[in-house]
Specification:
The N and C termini lie far apart (67 Å). The protein is mostly helical. The protein has eight helices and no strands.
Length: 173
């Protein structure tokens, strides 16, 4: 590809569809070429200067970790990234409540990467996976109850279970 003097749009598209990294050899790629490249390999976004939101979305939908290479992603891009791969929460600054909820609903353990999660986020995390309570400092009664209802074995991770949790565990067989 790199030896073709003036490749047509069709040649450029064929090249990036086969290997997204081919975009490195294309000067001023069109948005269609950019989209094809990131759809083939989300990480190729790192080779695109000032990608549009549509290109950013396509990249994180292919691979959520591509958000690492996006400067100042929009809320929409952040949500698409965490829905594709909850682990990307580590790379997202300025996490909104909606992003936090989306990530813990996918993977409760992701709460360990959220600073000062609200009670709603904590409850969503333990409802997804009760064992996420081990990453919550001083869980409220509501959080404790949600965790033990999801999985009674999580009681071992609650340092000071509230009375309601103790009663709930007594009723369990």
């Amino acid at each position: 590809f790199q030896f073709i003097q003036i490749p047509s749009e069709a040649v450029k598209l064929a090249a990036v569809r086969q290997n997204g990294n081919a975009i490195r050899c294309i000067r001023n790629p069109s948005e269609a070429v950019q989209l094809a490249a990131v759809q083939q390999n989300g990480y190729t976004i790192r080779h695109i200067e000032n990608p549009s939101e549509a290109v950013q979305l396509a990249a994180v939908r292919e691979n959520g970790l591509a958000i690492y290479h996006i400067e100042s992603p929009s809320e929409t891009v952040k949500l698409a990234a965490v829905r594709q791969d909850g682990r990307v929460i580590e790379f997202i600054k300025d996490q909104s409540e909606e992003v936090k909820l989306a990530v813990v609903q996918q993977n409760g353990y992701a709460i360990q990467h959220i600073e000062n999660p609200s009670e709603a986020v904590q409850i969503a995390a333990v409802e997804q996976n009760g064992f996420a309570i081990q990453y919550i400092k001083n869980p409220s009664e509501a959080v404790q109850l949600a965790a033990v209802h999801q999985n009674g074995y999580v009681i071992q991770y609650i340092k000071r279970p509230c009375e309601a949790v103790k009663r709930a565990m007594e009723r369990e067989p």
